[in-house]
Amino acid sequence: MKKIINSNYFYAFISLCCALWLFFFVSTPGVGSTRDSNQSNTSTVTKKATINAPLQLQADVDKYYITGYPEKVKITIEGPAALVTATKNTQNFNLYLNLRDLSIGQHRVQIKESGLNSELTYSIKPKYVTVNIQKRETKKFTVDVDYNKESLATGYETGTVDVSPQEVTVTGAASEIEKINRVVVKPILPKGIKSTFDQEVLVQALDKNGKTVNVTLDPQTVHVKIPITIQSKQVSINLKQKGNSSGNGYTLESDVKNVRVFGTKDQIDDIDSSIDVPVDLSNVTESTKKTVNLGDALGSKVSFTDPTSISVTISKTNSNTLANTTGNQTSSTSSSDSDSDDSSSSDSSSTNSTNDNNDSE
């Protein structure tokens, strides 16, 4: 055994075995080659992604007004995962319509791309679009204001409407500009509004039939301010009897002497410094108190009052008092008549005396 171990053949055999083991170790994938294998697999994995990309125009947009194309289109790209991810994040490519050599009118045009890596495949949706090319025109229009006055609370009125800016610039195809009948804002006032309306409102270009015209407005909104107010006046009240069917006499009194009335300018202008308030005595048979609703009593003369109602004391007139008053007045009249007769007698005596003296002479 010692001879075999110490012989040169033994060492040669061991060397051969080691060489064969090293050869198979290097040739077979193992732990040392895992990283390289992963990198290789990653570079060969494919990926697909869909991007919403803006659509650009290659045309003389200062001379022509172009419609019919979408602002964005979908492009689906496919290729190496890393490249697809980078392209989706950066979007370093363009989708465009080449309209430079096209005349006025409608055209069906293919959407094209530039800037995509050659290793990527792609598809665009839609592939074609129909565009309308027209001569471009720009014009200024004054903004009208159209709102529903019935939304105002009763008695309230609007003042001078303020629009800022008062003019807008309208750009579009010359044929569309010719269709414009007016440019208007339509503020929506809340029902029963009592205070000033102050908001930004969308501007619309309308034709003679009230339909929207396909143009571009600059600015697209304007500031609208509509003053909403109500007129008022402080007046005294005159209590007036109404519907007294009993034939009795009554006096009317109230602690409230003055009220403030509210209404439109025309309503307030028609009212003097005082206003008659009728008090219904149809069912009154004795002294009492009654609450009178001023709104019902005044009717359409005003919109409302402050206070809205008053308390009226209704006092039945005493008949004895009336009789005594009448008797005193009669007695006074008789006394006056007697004094008048005495005065006449005196005047007569004086006259007779004068006549006697004249005879004596």
UniProtKB/TrEMBL annotation:
Biased composition regions of type Low complexity, renumbered to the chain: 345-361
Pfam families (alphabetical): YbbR
Location of region: Disordered: 319-361
Residue stretches of biased makeup (Polar residues): 319-329
Protein name as it appears in the record: YbbR-like domain-containing protein
Organism: Companilactobacillus suantsaicola
